[in-house]
Design goal:
Pfam families: AAA_31 (PF13614). The chain is of the alpha/beta class. It has one domain: P-loop containing nucleotide triphosphate hydrolases (Rossmann fold, 3-Layer(aba) Sandwich). The protein is about 40% helix and about 15% strand. The protein starts with 10 loop residues before the first strand and ends in an 8-residue tail after the last helix. The protein binds adenosine-5'-diphosphate and magnesium ion (MG). The site of adenosine-5'-diphosphate (ADP) has 18 residues, from α1 and α10.
């Protein structure tokens, strides 16, 4: 159902952090699943050559005939790429290993930073009635991630609760600031979400305290605890919300989605 108060077209959110293994893909999949539980229609756009979001939602590599690689290189329109998942209301534009060369192939295009922006604004997207598009970015600040942040209304930043977590963040914030001055003046920061937290662990708590001290309200109240069910879910090709709906991980992602939708629900883990 489309919401008459929302501006036309979906809200596009890039899930980005140039560090690998911080929870980008996990966050993209599970925030998407939680938004679907809230009645929203969601598209995940996988632009990571590793294609983990695609695998994690049951789209195996051999089934990925048309992917975001074709979309970026203008070799196939959006509606040929988008596919259903097992979850009603959740669709995916799968990624592929070919994306690792897309960077180089895109460089010569004078619109190179706007390829995803333009692709996601193809009129065909209106027919799906998406409320949200979540772009799962590669672990790099390369041209793919720049495309995501130029296409997006906001950036959602997962921050793993470990030593040096904040170091890489300044580079990401700098890139966002640069894009705001150039290609995407409206780009906002959706928020920073602490992932894999363990409040019994002093270091994890210290990272959270530092993040809140430095970034203030940019940090979501909800934190995502380290939870083994979260890491098991992708091998069953399911979001943790479906794999183990009552797990701490599932509950935290539901709380995060609600916080994003504006109703603040705090989860203490
Ligand atoms: P990225 O996309 O940033 O590289 P992933 O989302 O793939 O990171 O997460 C990296 C690894 O950590 C994966 O194996 C994932 O299953 C695991 N993981 C992510 N979040 C959690 C969590 N809250 N609890 C336990 N394991 C997690
Ligand atoms: Mg990933």
């Amino acid at each position: 159902m489309s919401d008459p108060t929302r501006p036309k077209g979906p809200k596009i959110i890039a899930v980005a952090n140039q560090k690998g293994g911080v929870g980008k893909t996990t966050t993209a999949i599970n925030v998407a699943a939680a938004l679907v539980e809230e009645g929203k229609a969601v598209l995940i756009v996988d632009i990571d050559p590793q294609g983990n979001a695609s695998t994690g939602l049951g789209v195996e590599a051999e089934q990925r005939t048309k992917t975001t690689y074709d979309l970026l290189l203008d070799e196939a329109p959006l509606d040929e790429i988008i596919r259903r998942t097992d979850i009603d209301g959740l669709m995916i534009a799968p990624g592929t290993t070919d994306l690792s060369s897309a960077d180089i192939e895109m460089v010569s295009n004078e619109k190179r930073s706007f390829l995803l922006h333009d692709a996601l604004r193809q009129p065909a997207i209106d027919a799906y009635g998406f409320d949200f598009v979540l772009i799962d970015c590669p672990p790099s600040l390369n041209l793919l991630t720049v495309n995501a942040m130029v296409a997006a209304h906001s950036v959602l930043v997962p921050l793993q609760s470990e030593f040096f977590a904040l170091e890489g963040l300044s580079q990401l914030m700098l890139t966002i600031r640069e894009l705001r001055q150039t290609a995407n003046p409206e780009l906002r920061i959706e928020g920073v979400v602490l992932t894999m937290t363990d409040r019994r662990n002093n270091l994890s708590q210290q990272v959270e305290n530092d993040a809140r001290a430095h970034l203030g309200d940019l940090v979501f109240k909800t934190v995502i605890p380290r939870n083994v069910r979260v890491s098991e879910a992708p091998s069953y090709a399911m979001p943790v919300l479906d794999y183990d709906p009552l797990s701490k991980g599932a509950q935290a992602y539901r709380a995060l989605a609600r916080e994003m939708l504006g109703s603040t629900v705090q989860v203490t883990a």
